[in-house]
UniProtKB/TrEMBL annotation, chain A:
Pfam families: Complex1_51K, Fer4_7, RnfC_N, SLBB. Part of a membrane-bound complex that couples electron transfer with translocation of ions across the membrane. Its cofactor is [4Fe-4S] cluster. Residues 445-482, 497-555 are annotated as: Disordered. Its EC number is 7.-.-.-. This is Ion-translocating oxidoreductase complex subunit C. It is a peripheral membrane protein. PANTHER family: ION-TRANSLOCATING OXIDOREDUCTASE COMPLEX SUBUNIT C (PTHR43034). Residues 445-475 have a biased composition (Basic and acidic residues). The gene is rnfC. Gene3D superfamilies: 3.30.70.20, NADH-ubiquinone oxidoreductase 51kDa subunit.
From TrEMBL, chain B:
Keywords: Cell inner membrane, Cell membrane, Electron transport, Flavoprotein, FMN, Membrane, Phosphoprotein, Translocase, Transmembrane, Transmembrane helix, Transport. It comes from the Bacteria. Its EC number is 7.-.-.-. The modification FMN phosphoryl threonine is found at T180. GO terms for cellular component: plasma membrane. This is Ion-translocating oxidoreductase complex subunit D. The chain crosses the membrane at residues 20-37, 43-61, 73-89, 234-254, 260-280, 292-310. It comes from Methylocaldum marinum. One of its GO terms (biological process) is electron transport chain. Its cofactor is FMN. It holds the Pfam family NQR2_RnfD_RnfE. The complex is composed of six subunits: RnfA, RnfB, RnfC, RnfD, RnfE and RnfG. It is a multi-pass membrane protein.
Amino acid sequence: MNLFKLWNFHGGVHLDGQKQESGRAPLAVARLPERLIFPLQQRNGEDSKPVVAPGDRVLKGQAIACDDNPVIPPIHASSSGVVRAIEQLPLPHPSGLSGLCIAIETDGEDVATAFSGNPGYRQCSPAELRRNIHEAGIVGLGGAAFPTSIKMAAGTSRKVDTLILNGAECEPYITCDDSLLTHYSEEVLEGAKILLHSLQAERCLLAVEDDMPDALTALEKAMNCGDFETVQLVRVPAVYPTGGEKQLIKVLTGREVPARGIPADIGIVCQNVGTAAAVYNAVVRGTPLISRIVTVTGRGVKRPQNLLARIGTPLSDLVRQCGGYTSEAERLVLGGPMMGFDVPTDDLPLTKSVNCILVAGRNELIGEKQPLPCIRCGACADACPVNLLPQQLYWYGRSDQIERAVDYKLFDCIECGCCDYVCPSHIPLVQYFRAAKGKAIAKRREREKSEHARLRFESRQARKEQEKRDREESAKRKKLTLGASKAPEIVEAIERAKLRRAEKAGQASRNSDPTAKKQPEPSGPSAVKSPDAGAAEPGSAERTSVPEAKSPKID
Amino acid sequence: MHFPTAQAPYLAPINSVSRIMLTVQVALIPGLAALVWQFGSGVLVQCLIALVAAALGEAAMLSLRRRPAVPALKDYSAALTAILLAVSLPPLAPWWLTAFGTLFAIIIGKHLYGGLGYNPFNPAMVGYAVLLISFPQHMTAWLPPRELSGAALGFADAWTAIFSRTLPSELTFDALAMATPLDTLKTQLGLDRSLDEIQTGALFSGIGSRGWQWVNFGFLLGGLWLLKRGLIAWQIPVGFLSALFAMALIFFLIEPAVYPTPLFHCFSGATMLGAFFIATDPVTASTTPRGRLIYGASIGLLVFVIRSWGGYPDGVAFAVLLLNLAAPTIDHYTRPRVYGYPK
Ligand code: SF4
Ligand code: SF4
């Protein structure tokens, strides 16, 4: 295990772990709350659809929201009770928005639907296993909540040789994976085998940070008892952000996920250790994802510890079970202090993606910073795990040169916060990068829209020219056949008429110029459609000549 | 419960501009001490004058620009500029020269470009260059090192000398003034004397020259400490010194009668001060790792060129200013390879 060759990624920072408080306390099982809340939105994107109605009785493990879209896994009730309402409630989301939620009043009986596991999963095809995983509502438990079945499906079109289980909890304060590995090492290891089978991959690397001695001991013990030849335990240095997917892949394999690519492109699939345990529970025991381990910590909470809690439990309930708030409780963060986000209230439910509830005491965390100008010291660039030049991104982002920022790989920023942390000028760099990304996306949309309009215009133009050529061809042919019989005066009259028409068209185009300038850029579908509609009926030369004259303006 | 919110990350930053600037000033102490030991306390008086001028200049410019003065004064960047300029000046230069140079550095070199972080040129070197061009006699009138004069002026004597141009009775400015070793070398080589002859002079001894080698050792020491603290990028001093050393070595091997040893170059004039404290000024240096190496090496190269064939005895100030101009371009062409992009 210690002979395993590790690689380095650029940058990174050493952070004070702050893990003792929550890590030392034993894992407790959270009480059954009176109310459970399930937001229909699990990630940014579409809501899943409720399949229960207010007044319905539901059992523990029963699906209460589903969707045909494979990217949206179902949601299950985490205890028995009655659906009280499906209503707008605040979401645990950085935006602080509300969303539709299913609220269940528990009945205290905790009656479960019948679960049927499948210990003989080796007979199942990878596709069947993936369906199993999807139906159990499993998403990545490391914080991103990406649907696990989708991640596993990436292996179908690519050759995956390595499964990485991420137990490198690099953010300060968080110890839920440590706790999981200590108490449920067998589930994690068995889960790894299921994932390997479903990926048809050969080896699994289980990465654990070297400051997690209990987890390491438990894992080694479990590995000695069972048959886990395909799983290799690797200790990785506790440097932030080793637990980032791309960084961990680099550390373990020396490979880099190509820009805009996914790990499967280089033969790797990466899953959180909690996800592996959830997969084991789903496949072998038949239990859907209805609970998770969450760290409740910080100086603002009386008894920091890890809780095995039901998804949907209000955060206030969880804090109460940890002795409640101390008098200095000041801030509430979901996730870690580097990549987590502040929420304004504890009246929010625990979701599948929340790995830590950090209640900060007085001056434990900072708020708004008082920045000085950038002194171009380059400390940020030295710390950036992606090897960006944050000082340049900041410079371009601030002076609204978004294109330049994108050219300097703005979109490869993983928002890890290392640059922020080391910046002596206390510039909130990540905040700037988020804003710059938003602006860049808005600009791109705008460009795509006008590009779209341009393409449609060009194809219409080409079509019209073709029509014109066709018309001229046929006219020529007619003239050839008629030419012999036509009197010269008639030919002359036709020529005169043509000339007049051309003059008129020229005038029309001149007249139309000022109006063309005033016309707004084609911005919506209607604006794109209108010239097209005109072209749909092949009009006379006069009619088409007007938009033709406008063409340079639209371009 | 309700809580205030802000944006991540929430961990307090580990460093601050004022801490960096102060640490760099602490790192200047060994070099400063060597200067005092060898050339008397004049340099301390110059530091005081420069500090006062810098503070006044900074405060005046900030109030003109309608910015609060206290936070900017507390970042100690103006103080660092003042001290860097003061240690580069002849110890007994008249007070107005120091004050003028410092004010020029702060007002023109820094604030007219937009203040901290926006100045393309190293302000201390802007001040130095202006003084060198405008007042060449004053700027070349250095003192003999203690090893030659036997004693150095104390603080009170230096003070009166600088402010009222009077010296203790047994001394005169003319007798006291002495060219620096680099200057001497340049003039004498111009008179067609051979290097061997020149170096029999009292100023030259050891690896560099009397007095100056200790000053360079002092700045080297402070610079190494800064490197160890991770406050300056190693690429700049390493690039600077190795380029200077390599150039000097090549020419020394070709024609030892005209070109002094590489060690002489490294321990004379402003070499160590330049390599560790001037060229490393973050605002005006290159910021990419490879860029810094190129930037440092180019300065080292230019220093050798100016010293050997240029019109000035030392070349650090002009080499730094020239490369300041090139830094943005160097940065542009030395962007590091971002994770996930082809090698
Ligand atoms: S760390 Fe801060 S001050 Fe230094 S270069 Fe980066 S953004 Fe500028
Ligand atoms: S937040 Fe972005 S720019 Fe800053 S260190 Fe992380 S990846 Fe680099």
